[in-house]
C-alpha cells in the first residue's frame, strides 16, 4: 500500500477547510495531511491550528517569513516538507471522494509508473460562482480525459497533438505522484506564475515522468465553485487573460528550450507563446509584429491568436 502525503495550500479558506481535511482523513494510505498556510487574512490559521490538535495526521507549516507567497511556492514548500513516498494535492475549497485512491495500489506496483490521475466533478456553492463557471466552461461537469492514456500520449494529449480528442484536462486534485520522480527530474511549481502554475506543472510532469490515467469515467474528487474562484473571474481573451496566458506559455517555452520535447510539441508551445505575446501589443507595433510572425510561421494563424487579435486592447 502506498504511503501518501496530501498537500493542502491554505489561503483564506476558513469556510471550506475543515470539510477538505475531513475528506482526506479516512484513507489508510494517507499518512499525513500537510496544511501550508500562506498568510491568510481570515481565521484560516486558527482553524489549521485546531485541526493539528484534533488529528495526529494533520501538520501545519508556514513560509519562513510568515508572508504570502502564492500557491506555487506554497505547494513547493509542501513537497519539501513531505515525508511520504507519494504526494497528492488538494485545494482547500475542494474535497476527495471515497474512491480517491482506489487504483493507486495496483498501478504503482509497476515501477515505471510515476503518477496516476483521474476525473473531477464540480459542486456549485454559490449562484454567482455557478454562473461565472458555466459562462466559461459550458456543460463541463466532469473534468477528465476521453480515453485511457499513459506515457507520452498524456503529454501530447494535453497539448492537443493526438489524433483523438484527449479531453478537457485533468485536475491537480486527482494526481498522485512519486516524490522520487519529482526530485529526480527537479520538478517544482513555477513561482513566477500566480495563476496557471498547476497547468504548467502538469504539462512538464507529463513529459518528464511516466503518467497513467486511473479512474476517468467518474469523479474521484470535487471542485467547490464559489464567488472567489480566481480562474473563472477573468474574461476570456481580455488583456488580463492574454497576459496570464502569455506568462504560462512563456514558462513552457523556456522549459522546452532546455528539455527538447518533440518537434511538433516545441513548435506548438512556441506558437502559443508568440500568439499571446502579440496579443499584449497595441497599435502599429502589434500589426508589424503580427506580419513578421506570419512570415516566420503562418501556422500562428491557427492558434488562439485569431481570437485575441480581434479583441480591443
TrEMBL record:
Residues 5-130 form the Glycosyltransferase 2-like domain. InterPro entries: Glyco_trans_2-like (IPR001173), Nucleotide-diphossugar_trans (IPR029044). Keywords: Glycosyltransferase, Transferase. Transmembrane segments: none annotated. This is Glycosyltransferase family 2 protein. It comes from Chryseobacterium kwangjuense. The lineage of its organism: Bacteria, Pseudomonadati, Bacteroidota, Flavobacteriia, Flavobacteriales.
Amino acid at each position: 500500500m502506498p504511503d501518501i502525503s496530501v498537500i493542502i495550500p491554505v489561503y483564506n479558506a476558513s469556510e471550506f477547510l475543515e470539510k477538505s481535511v475531513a475528506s482526506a482523513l479516512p484513507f489508510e494510505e494517507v499518512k499525513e495531511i500537510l496544511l501550508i498556510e500562506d498568510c491568510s487574512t481570515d481565521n484560516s490559521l486558527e482553524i489549521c491550528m485546531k485541526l493539528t490538535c484534533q488529528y495526529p495526521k494533520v501538520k501545519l507549516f508556514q513560509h519562513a517569513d510568515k508572508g504570502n507567497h502564492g500557491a506555487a511556492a506554497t505547494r513547493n514548500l509542501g513537497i519539501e516538507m513531505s515525508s511520504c513516498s507519494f504526494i497528492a494535492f488538494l485545494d482547500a475549497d475542494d474535497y476527495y471522494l471515497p474512491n480517491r485512491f482506489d487504483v493507486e495500489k495496483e498501478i504503482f506496483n509497476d515501477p515505471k509508473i510515476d503518477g496516476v490521475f483521474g476525473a473531477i466533478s464540480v459542486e456549485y456553492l454559490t449562484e454567482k460562482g455557478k454562473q461565472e463557471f458555466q459562462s466559461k466552461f459550458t456543460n463541463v461537469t466532469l473534468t477528465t480525459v476521453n480515453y485511457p492514456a499513459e506515457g507520452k500520449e498524456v503529454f501530447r494529449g494535453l497539448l492537443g497533438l493526438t489524433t483523438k480528442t484527449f479531453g478537457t484536462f485533468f485536475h491537480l486534485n486527482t494526481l498522485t505522484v512519486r516524490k522520487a520522480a519529482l526530485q529526480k527530474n527537479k520538478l517544482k511549481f513555477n513561482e513566477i506564475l500566480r495563476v496557471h502554475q498547476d497547468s504548467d506543472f502538469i504539462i512538464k510532469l507529463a513529459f518528464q515522468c511516466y503518467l497513467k490515467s486511473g479512474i476517468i469515467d467518474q469523479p474521484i474528487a470535487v471542485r467547490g465553485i464559489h464567488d472567489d474562484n480566481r480562474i473563472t473571474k477573468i474574461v476570456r481573451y481580455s488583456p488580463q487573460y492574454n497576459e496570464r496566458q502569455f506568462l504560462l506559455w512563456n514558462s513552457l517555452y523556456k522549459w522546452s528550450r532546455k528539455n527538447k520535447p518533440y518537434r511538433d510539441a516545441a513548435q506548438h508551445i512556441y506558437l502559443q507563446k508568440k500568439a499571446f505575446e502579440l496579443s499584449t501589443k497595441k497599435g502599429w507595433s502589434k500589426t508589424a509584429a503580427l506580419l513578421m510572425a506570419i512570415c516566420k510561421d503562418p501556422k500562428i494563424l491557427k492558434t488562439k491568436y485569431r481570437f485575441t487579435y480581434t479583441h480591443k486592447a
